[in-house]
Amino acid sequence: MTKVAVVPHIGQPETVSRTGEMVSSLRDRNVEVVAAHDAAGLLGVEPTSFGPDEGLDLVIAIGGDGTVLKAVRLGRGSGAPIGGINHGNLGYLADPLPTDPSSLLDGIAARDWFTSERMLLTASINGGDPIVGLNDVVIEKVKNQRTIRLAISIDGEAFINYPADGVVVATATGSTAYNLSAGGPLIDPALDMLVMTPVAPHFLFSRSMVFPPYRRIRFDVMEDRPAVVGVDGREIANLNPGEQVEVEGGGRVSIARFADRSFPTSVRQKFSLT
Fold it and tell me: What gap in Å lies between CA 7 and CA 198, rounded to an integer?
């Protein structure tokens, strides 16, 4: 029997309702369904801890790319691949929900999906335990504050002092998110690398830089202005002057896709390219 954990966007009632319909249909196909703790009661299923002993075959996020990131955070320790079904707009991480989901549900019951390995990254605040993300780490100014100044070093070697609104360090998977908005490049998610892109730099050198995943990129907050650190869109810490965060590659996670959609196809559809 296939065992699936679902992670819906619980802030969208329509998504929770559609997830409930999917749960019922999967049970009809002899699939055991469990859910994240915050959704289990809403869906009438047992909660899961996402531990490696849970025997999960698949973790499914139902929502958008943000819900997929949540599912990665919750489910990466399970060892199961993590897939996304986008109940709304087309995303890079989540597949669109078909008008007739029967073939999708049949495929899940038959364990018929595509998988690819994606690189993760970590952020360590002041030498503390690493916090893992799939997309990016962002160090930026506090809202309504003037620019911050960051002293950046690579593997312990001083590199540059950046006066900017912030800096994004993204994986190839995360290159389509804040990195892209800041003017960084689109990168095929099959690549293992880190791309560092400044946000509104007040400096002549404003280019993105690409590093292998084993480089340790350290950011020290300078002068008298604090900074905020976020991982995959979640604020994790406020840094005062003199404090620092270190970013590097941090393992891998298996991503499931329910359609064999290439990266160029995803980009073409997202930007309505002809």
Answer: 33
